[in-house]
Amino acid sequence: MDEKTLRALLARVKRGQASLDEAVAALKGAPFERLGDLATLDTHRTLRVGMPEVVLAESKTAAQVAAIARTLAARGPLLVTRLSPAKAGPARRAVKGSVYDPVSRTLRKGRMDLPARGPVAVCCAGTSDIPVCEEAAVTLEVMGVEPIRVYDVGVAGIHRLLARRDDLERARAVIVAAGMEGALPSVVGGLVGRPVIGVPTSVGYGASLGGLAPLFTMLNSCAPNVTVVNVDNGFGAAFVAGLVARG
Amino acid sequence: MDEKTLRALLARVKRGQASLDEAVAALKGAPFERLGDLATLDTHRTLRVGMPEVVLAESKTAAQVAAIARTLAARGPLLVTRLSPAKAGPARRAVKGSVYDPVSRTLRKGRMDLPARGPVAVCCAGTSDIPVCEEAAVTLEVMGVEPIRVYDVGVAGIHRLLARRDDLERARAVIVAAGMEGALPSVVGGLVGRPVIGVPTSVGYGASLGGLAPLFTMLNSCAPNVTVVNVDNGFGAAFVAGLVARG
Amino acid sequence: MDEKTLRALLARVKRGQASLDEAVAALKGAPFERLGDLATLDTHRTLRVGMPEVVLAESKTAAQVAAIARTLAARGPLLVTRLSPAKAGPARRAVKGSVYDPVSRTLRKGRMDLPARGPVAVCCAGTSDIPVCEEAAVTLEVMGVEPIRVYDVGVAGIHRLLARRDDLERARAVIVAAGMEGALPSVVGGLVGRPVIGVPTSVGYGASLGGLAPLFTMLNSCAPNVTVVNVDNGFGAAFVAGLVARG
Amino acid sequence: MDEKTLRALLARVKRGQASLDEAVAALKGAPFERLGDLATLDTHRTLRVGMPEVVLAESKTAAQVAAIARTLAARGPLLVTRLSPAKAGPARRAVKGSVYDPVSRTLRKGRMDLPARGPVAVCCAGTSDIPVCEEAAVTLEVMGVEPIRVYDVGVAGIHRLLARRDDLERARAVIVAAGMEGALPSVVGGLVGRPVIGVPTSVGYGASLGGLAPLFTMLNSCAPNVTVVNVDNGFGAAFVAGLVARG
Amino acid sequence: MDEKTLRALLARVKRGQASLDEAVAALKGAPFERLGDLATLDTHRTLRVGMPEVVLAESKTAAQVAAIARTLAARGPLLVTRLSPAKAGPARRAVKGSVYDPVSRTLRKGRMDLPARGPVAVCCAGTSDIPVCEEAAVTLEVMGVEPIRVYDVGVAGIHRLLARRDDLERARAVIVAAGMEGALPSVVGGLVGRPVIGVPTSVGYGASLGGLAPLFTMLNSCAPNVTVVNVDNGFGAAFVAGLVARG
Amino acid sequence: MDEKTLRALLARVKRGQASLDEAVAALKGAPFERLGDLATLDTHRTLRVGMPEVVLAESKTAAQVAAIARTLAARGPLLVTRLSPAKAGPARRAVKGSVYDPVSRTLRKGRMDLPARGPVAVCCAGTSDIPVCEEAAVTLEVMGVEPIRVYDVGVAGIHRLLARRDDLERARAVIVAAGMEGALPSVVGGLVGRPVIGVPTSVGYGASLGGLAPLFTMLNSCAPNVTVVNVDNGFGAAFVAGLVARG
Amino acid sequence: MDEKTLRALLARVKRGQASLDEAVAALKGAPFERLGDLATLDTHRTLRVGMPEVVLAESKTAAQVAAIARTLAARGPLLVTRLSPAKAGPARRAVKGSVYDPVSRTLRKGRMDLPARGPVAVCCAGTSDIPVCEEAAVTLEVMGVEPIRVYDVGVAGIHRLLARRDDLERARAVIVAAGMEGALPSVVGGLVGRPVIGVPTSVGYGASLGGLAPLFTMLNSCAPNVTVVNVDNGFGAAFVAGLVARG
Amino acid sequence: MDEKTLRALLARVKRGQASLDEAVAALKGAPFERLGDLATLDTHRTLRVGMPEVVLAESKTAAQVAAIARTLAARGPLLVTRLSPAKAGPARRAVKGSVYDPVSRTLRKGRMDLPARGPVAVCCAGTSDIPVCEEAAVTLEVMGVEPIRVYDVGVAGIHRLLARRDDLERARAVIVAAGMEGALPSVVGGLVGRPVIGVPTSVGYGASLGGLAPLFTMLNSCAPNVTVVNVDNGFGAAFVAGLVARG
């Protein structure tokens, strides 16, 4: 509530146009909805940060996911991430018209209706990184932004990446997922003049430390346009890239 | 070099309008300048990524910094970061008109002449984080983007942050530096619908692990619009935020 | 045995009112009970630290838990924690009247009869942290202290927490469970003038490091009223909060 | 601002007893004081969390410390921690009547005037832990709580601790500082029925990992009344113990 | 494409001996094959680095492995590593004549036809390291290099190793796999004047940290002829050893 | 082979009492037995280090364990450790008269016939540490040394340990297993004048880091008679304690 | 106090041969001496663990060391470790007849008068490990045990170690210090049938992690007679080896 | 000593052509030289591993370095590494004709006289990595192998590397030093068919973890011809590359 709205409200109280109860309610606000002790849904998040609350299903039960999804879907576009096939059923049934995709492990319904200034490229180093990229691509679609897929272009065969340079250059932001040594974001960052969002993936073994190795690689990038999100966090990368694309 | 330019060049070779030597030179290119075995300066970086090469002075000698700074300043705006007062002299003398700032530890000259769509907010949790923020603010200024300083608004007194909400909301991107527990980016991320770039700082002791603790905090942020750069990397955060602000 | 009791005992020996054997036994004491080589139960713990020995079932067999639970339940209130549904049967049958709760994974019987000076608030950042909170709530109830549940109020929607400020303010101590970035205890700590006990949870992925990331966040809290317990240790947090509430 | 105050304020607006400007000011509030871009002092912290803002001097300059100390001392008791002898001069001169102690590395003036229900014991394992304990003892004194010093009673000579049991038992809370293996809090925790606050110290070498080893020891304590603060954080431990002692 | 080839091509364009389309194709090249969005196979890798692309099956589905294997096998020798028995079927059926080995978990067909200057020794410390050694031995065979197996010769019985010294000395390079403390490469390195490639294995428990302990052991080797590859990476060790043996 | 034996052998060669082949064989020796490429058994280990080779079954197949056990049992006492019930069958059948114990997860047959100067105490902090202690106790028995079991005497109830002081004092060495915070070895070390061997166990959760936390605790012990072995390594602790007891 | 002494004391109380005050004093005991709040010296430690309290000077001031040394030297042999040359003066002057050695950084006076059953070997891998070995050798001498020095015999030239086998074999225990990869204890452990105590040293760089790499190497030793102490802890290793040698 | 030599020696003993003393000496050997307790120099190392013992000066005193250097220089080429300018004097004076270079921090005299089959390329990502590269280049020169310097060609400007492809391709092995994210070895590995030896450097800050981040990057390289040495270990990389170049 900004000062202007506040002054208007107080003036209406003063003039008797608003009751005390109305004013108290407006001033205390309640931009959330409680589902018993289960959840306190942040229903104003779209206004505030440009995207409805997204459900991270990983450590919730199938029943919890379904209950939350139903409430959110009644208010706008729905996106559930990290939803395993085994847990997807109840939520899919709870939200008529929702679509489940087993590669990206997402459930979604609807999309936001905001204009974007251009597409976002989604790159990955190897075939095994594709599920993370697809989580990003689906998120972009729900945000109303076009994803350009540039897959399996890792640095051990750098010519594969150079051949896709046109696709990179028309993007407003570039998401780069990579496991193992995680070097791809630095190389991409040296090629384009857009924000590059690195997504370390848990693809690898031994010294990849479950994704911490590529995470540290990306944080130390010598290309200054690289920022980083958590391991396997395709959703977060896409959300930020979508904000950039929207302007 | 895209296909169209390539075809044009080859056509000119065919027609005898371009000599073989010219064509070889154009095709092999050399968008860099070698300073003996000291450095291979990437002089086309502005065209490619929107910013000239920036000199990280930390592990270079004063003489190396001066030599590289002189070469770069002859071609465009100059920015040297992590330049300690003890090493600043030679570079400052080598580049006439350059300005050294001991708080941000930067040397700079000139600024880029590109339009920005709006300012960038630079926040920090505590007074000790200010040097990192100033490195970011100086970088933004060299990029031609206005910084809005929002300092000492850490989460243990959350009302200080809420009081600066207007400043946050007019920014195109928000940089948030924080040491110790590094919680501020998450809170800011929940308030604004813009990309938030978290900069963990090495402010703290013991379990702050030299900045790794706030780094991990930010990577795990529950606010999905937060991306992260390396510890104390004010420059990198500002570079990305500047790209977002330019559009 | 304090000096006064000691003098009294010696005086009784001197006067022949106590035999040597009695005195030796009293002086050597044995405030524990051995169950063969299986366990050495600390049966005087209630007197000493204000709570009977609590059984951590996690790395014990179902039979071991049942044997220990039976012995303890014969002497006072019983609390078994981290008892998976698969292992709960034998202990529940061994202690008539005991109650098993699958969310908190506790088995309990009875409660302590000590007065408390007020309630303890139990907060969490997200729905997935609820099992840890419920372990805390059950522990408080066995200690005879009222828990106030404040769930799903994480920092990405800070208004949800501010709306529950009254509940926080009437508590004698506040338990705050959070996974991922673990920022909630710092924000709560800045709002109340009571001890805040942070419980990092293992909710999260990748850079959450199985709960170490929120653990470090909380240890570095800039709010000075925050102390921390082990990852997912709802019981320990509740035990300390209960001691504070008792006074 | 609770609902009752809010209703009263709105009623006064309605009756014309309060002007719109007054009401706006009251509703927007500003419980802090800005020192230019240097600091945003949280001047209402005493009301909110029971202690004025305390200055952590470690990564501030001597001039910054002096400026902040002068402002805070004008409003109530002053405590500056981690202030090295080399930086103490300006702040001591800026605040007339302040006292600097080189062992605890604190500067202080005045004390709070709140009743405490009993003393707090401050224990340490070895002589080298004394500076951390003295930081805690000074903090308690500024809070108006009596510290009981129980020093050099580490677990390799457990009888030294047992001999001080009376001192432990009359305390409302016990602070236990220990470096190296950090085992003392567990042993103390098994002896008393009060909250025990473990302070790992950076005393040790090699596998002590700069205090992380005793930190992990304490977090894993089998005594359930132990909570933990950051390495060497005597101030934080004392602040929480003081809150417990005040009741 | 080196300068000489480039000049020749341009001269042919100038003389009309090559069409523009031919020249564009030659200059843009395309040494890879796209399988939809699934993979971008680097089909020129043999020319460039001396070995066809090898398939790491670990985080790919059985169907993905089969599709990629079929494409690669059509162009030269095939090697698939980390292929569990459960996933091997489809790929084995997709490539007629391929052989699956459950100990090394490899699928292969054919071998390279390049001369080697001598054999490569493959040593291991204990029986449990054999699967990693067999992955190395199979890789060497596909490269056309003879492996000498020297198994179960760990440092706790150093005479077992000394007895195999002749075998070590006729090798052009030595691969040494070891888990637990990983000391064997240092001892071997002190005995032979050839490159020694250490392969830490995940054999061990507790402080072996999943193979990180032997990894660090080998990186710190006081024998200067030791280099190291990732944990359990028998393939990588063999590939480098094979390059050395080929000359 | 010491110098005296060497001189004697050479003298016999000189005198024609030994053939060249005999001498070569004696000088090259072969105190091991190869089982194909499976294992190189160190059959002289008893002479050299006082104990036959012991089989660590953890990462071997049931068939490998059985083959190795059969060979070793033919030459002396047999001890197999970390043998899960699921894998025990073939080895038990391969060695007639062998005994499998599921608590310690050992298979054994026979015992060494060497005199010991006294018993070894085996202590643990909690019931969950018993399997590690039993592995130690069985190992001692195979070595011909008497174990004294002192179980469940953790530091949170220190009187339970003090009550067993007589048992500790008659031991030649003391093994102390502890998980969680691992403080028990320090306390025991302060009570007895014998070598104390700490065995960190993987009992615990969260910040116990799979046993690394108690490992570091023990390495930092302020009691100077404490040495440490790997996590859960009851066998190693017992082997060293047995050597001490033997003298 | 054992039961027999206790019965005798009580009998004397009963017979009036001991006053109540005498008995209380005897039963409460006080086997330590307080130096104000500076230290609580454990003056009965020799009786209990076989060695007087040893002073770790590292994080104490020169004045603290001198005060404690003077008190301890009045009661028996004195050993101060980790005493830098800069801090040694006051303690050396405080204890007449004490000797300071800058290589081992020890101050000592006198030696214990207990018989040993044999010498202890002190080995190291490289010249840089000698200070740690000398700390061990001095400690052994104060304990009355003969050290055998076997220096610079690292595993990259294993024949240097094999040539000293006689020295190793006459020792009752073997101390092995090694930095970098820390492999030497495993090799020594495979050669002798005595307890081997590994001392990781901080000699090395990069991946030696300040001594953690050799620490982990030794903990994972495949030689079962190896136990480990903290990084650079020559004193601790010698203390345990001395106990073994004494019997 | 191989079997053939052994048979010849024994035959000479038998025929009386060799005395027993001669044979004992030959069989016991002593391929090292003891400098008191200071060092046990491995003087046969050249024969065994192809390079004389090299002195790592880092944790030795100037006097120790000088003494060891003098002994080694009397027997062949000399190389001392990690010798700071402050410690170089005594060694340089001790070895007439030796040359000290402050960039690579090496002291050397002479070179080995063995033929190499080709040069070795030494690449680095940035100017700050040059000292490590120079240590490698000097080592190669002492081994008699030509180094090709390819400096400052990091992945953020990949065209700089591609322009030096000819230099890479004529090398027998390629050394690649890189700090920060350490991505360069993977890119080089994808370009050449030779062994690539990655040297992580400690250049960087924050999340570079003192060189551990690029170390892990290189260990996880998707280019299979990359092996890795310790942080900043230019010497080790060059030694292995030199062995490859020699053949």
UniProtKB/TrEMBL annotation, chains A, B, C, D, E, F, G, H:
GO terms for molecular function: hydrolase activity. Transmembrane segments: none annotated. It holds the Pfam family AIRC. One of its GO terms (biological process) is 'de novo' IMP biosynthetic process. Residues 118-247 form the PurE domain. NCBIfam families: LarB. This is 1-(5-phosphoribosyl)-5-amino-4-imidazole-carboxylate (AIR) carboxylase.
